[in-house]
Design goal:
Elements lengths: L9 E5 L5 H10 L3 E5 L3 H8 L10 H10 L2 E4 L10 E4 L5 E2 L2 E2 L2 H11 L7 E4 L7 H14 L8 E4 L18 E3 L4 H12 L5 E3 L3 H32 L3 H8 L19 H17 L4 H11 L1 H15 L8 E5 L14 H11 L3 E5 L13 E2 L4 H5 L3 E4 L16 E3 L10 E2 L1
Helix pairs in contact: 4-5, 7-9, 7-10, 9-10, 11-12
């Protein structure tokens, strides 16, 4: 196949998911010619017809990008023999508690085959400190035959996409940038200066990689703290919500976090473990705060189910055969993202105990809906048929009025009824 002709500057965005697609759309708006590369052919086919599966990117925006002639979704780079910039935004999951860098490695091999002198490659995927220099660079060099720093530029810029956040977009959120050397930092900064309002340069790629892990580890540890306090407060007969609200009135020296049924998304359940793994691998010791936070937060879905069992026991009912209504499945409010969502795990735990599980969540697509869970709307009929309801995610477009006067376990402190039971 003859090479595909693309006007410059050509930007390849590897991964067209929650991070890569908003990035690609912003780059198109900024005037770049963008190839959106993704190994999921069905996703690429949908994007090619103007269909988005990311809530923050409406179909109309994808259609406009296609109409501009500056956006091409593809499942391979066949026919493309160069690029000016490439940004890798692929998943970095945990496999049996260990970081899985296979998607980054595959992306590096793909880009290395078409890497030419003068190009810039940036990694955005969250990972352990050292990945850019120790994993990405060697693969790019081996496949391309070029030398990083001398022939091409490499950097790391951690993604800060917050699904469902209407206030802070990809463009308006300050962007940390880094490079393997001064020339790479200059090129990476120049690239993102064209895409975002504020760039924040740091000394090197390791500092940028660690900064991302610090952000999410901070949240993870503090959420674990209030989750453990919530469990203890319940056993002590103390209203944790009132105590937290009271503490939150202090105008200095305190940052308020709220308990819940666990943590979800790619960041909190995964990212701190990357940091813990790196410390154990290279320093031979544990990162105790992270490991303790993992233990607490991972135990919250089971705790919610135990509280649910106790409520049903008080009604002389068993979990087996009970009709349980879950309100909210996604891991955060006003989002359809169910990655690592505690509600999905709660649904599975309940089903394993013999409960019939129904859920309400208008934001979660049919594709992401958990198997064995009945989809419903929150109305009087649905609420009255449930032996107990559990509020797990508070979507602002879901009216909780149908829960009035019914048995409710409220893990978010959002049901304003004296009959409800809070976490």
């Amino acid at each position: 196949m003859s090479p595909v002709s693309h006007p410059r500057p050509l930007l390849i965005v590897v991964g067209q998911g929650y991070v890569g697609l908003p990035l690609a759309m912003r780059a198109v708006d900024a005037g770049f010619h963008v190839v959106g590369l993704d190994v999921d052919r069905s996703r690429v086919e949908a994007l090619a017809t103007g269909i988005s599966f990311v809530e923050d990117v409406p179909d109309a925006q994808v259609a406009a990008a296609l109409d501009s002639g500056r956006y091409t979704p593809r499942s391979s780079l066949e026919g493309i023999d160069h690029f000016d910039h490439a940004i890798i935004s692929v998943p970095t999951p945990l496999r049996e508690t260990l970081p899985d860098l296979s998607y980054i490695e595959a992306a590096a091999r793909t880009l290395g085959a078409v890497l030419r002198p003068g190009a810039t490659v940036v990694l955005e995927s969250t990972t352990s400190p050292g990945t850019t220099a120790e994993v990405l660079v060697p693969i790019l060099e081996a496949v391309s035959g070029l030398s990083a720093g001398r022939d091409f530029h490499v950097g790391f810029s951690p993604e800060r996409i917050d699904p469902g956040n209407s206030e802070w977009s990809f463009r308006t959120t300050p962007k940390i940038v880094s490079g393997i050397d001064d020339a790479s930092l200059a090129e990476v900064t120049k690239l993102y200066d064209a895409l975002v309002d504020v760039t924040v340069p740091v000394a090197g790629t390791r500092e940028a990689e660690l900064a991302k892990l610090i952000e999410n580890t901070f949240r993870h540890v503090n959420i674990a703290l209030v989750n453990e306090l919530a469990v203890a407060a319940h056993d002590l007969g103390i209203n944790i919500w009132q105590a937290l609200d009271a503490a939150g009135t202090k105008p200095f020296g305190f940052m308020q976090f709220m308990p819940g049924p666990g943590v979800g998304g790619h960041c909190l359940p995964v990212d701190p473990s990357y940091l813990s793994w790196e410390v154990r691998r290279k320093l031979g010791r544990s990162l105790r705060f992270v490991e303790l936070a993992n233990e607490v937060n991972e135990g919250m879905p089971e705790y919610v189910v135990r509280r649910l069992e106790a409520l049903l026991n008080d009604e002389s009912k068993a979990v087996r055969g009970a009709n349980v209504l879950l309100v909210g499945l996604s891991y955060k409010a006003d989002s359809g993202d169910v990655r690592e969502a505690p509600a999905v795990r709660i649904a599975r735990l309940l089903a394993a105990r013999g409960a019939s599980v129904t859920a309400v969540d208008p934001h979660v697509s049919d594709r992401d809906w958990p198997a064995g869970v009945v989809r419903s709307e929150l109305d009087d009929e649905t609420a009255s048929s449930a032996d107990v309801s559990v509020v797990l995610t508070r979507h602002t477009d879901v009216d909780l009025g149908a829960l009035r006067g019914r048995l409710v376990l409220d893990t978010r402190n959002v049901v304003d009824e004296p009959t409800r039971v809070v976490l």
